[in-house]
Structures are given as C-alpha cells and as structure tokens.
Design brief:
mainly alpha, DoxX family membrane protein, membrane, transmembrane, transmembrane helix
C-alpha cells in the first residue's frame, strides 16, 4: 500500500505542477475566471500557479507534504465556493460547469486523502 500511495502522490503532484505551468502560460484567460469582485486578477492567477507548483514540489521532495496537501485542498475549496458554486447557481444545467465543479471537488478530496496518508503512514 505504501508504494501505491507514493506513486499516486507523485502522479497527483505532476498534474498539479502542470496545472501551475498552465496558469502561467494562459494567465490572461485564467484571469477572466477570477470573480469580478476580487481585485488584482493577474496577481491571483500567478499566486495560484506558484501555490500549485509549490504543493507539487513538497510532495516530490517529501518536505511539508502533509501541509502542502492540506493547503492545496483548502485553496481548491476556495475555488469551488467562489467560482463553481456561483456559476452553478446561475446556470445549473450546463454540463461543462457541473463537470468542472466535480473535477475540482475530486482534486480537493484527493489532496485531503494524501494529507491523511502523509499523517498516518509518514510516506516521504
């Protein structure tokens, strides 16, 4: 189980690292997804990119991985609460928006599970 968890953690970290790179590559588009009431859209896009990449690095090197996963999960839940839920309220029959909300719910759940595994089994 420990080996499978470790491989899964590295795969998850790779996905998060790639998402971070994509935030830099497509910053102007991603900035349009930040709710209008939040100022400094590009700052938050770059901050999110660095947070995604930092959490991935913490998993790769095994330093503060539990905290990296917990903070990542909380950040993704902020996205769910501030972006996805308002979009679903306004257009709840849009399949793409439902899929994106569920995807982020799954990603946050995986980060919480990884944090628990780091806590329980101490994988590095």
């Amino acid at each position: 189980m420990k080996q499978a968890a470790k491989v899964s953690a590295y795969i998850y970290a790779t996905v998060m690292f790639i998402f971070g790179i994509q935030h830099f590559m497509y910053a102007d588009f991603v900035a349009t997804l930040v709710p209008g009431w939040i100022p400094f859209h590009l700052f938050w896009v770059y901050f999110t990119a660095l947070a995604l990449m930092s959490s991935a690095v913490s998993i790769y090197i095994g330093i503060c991985a539990k905290w990296g996963c917990l903070l990542l999960a909380c950040m993704i839940w902020v996205f769910i609460l501030t972006i996805h839920i308002p979009l679903l309220i306004n257009s709840h029959f849009d399949g793409g928006k439902i899929t994106n909300a569920l995807k982020d719910t799954g990603l946050a759940s995986c980060a919480f599970i990884l944090a628990w595994i780091y806590q329980q089994e101490g994988i590095k």
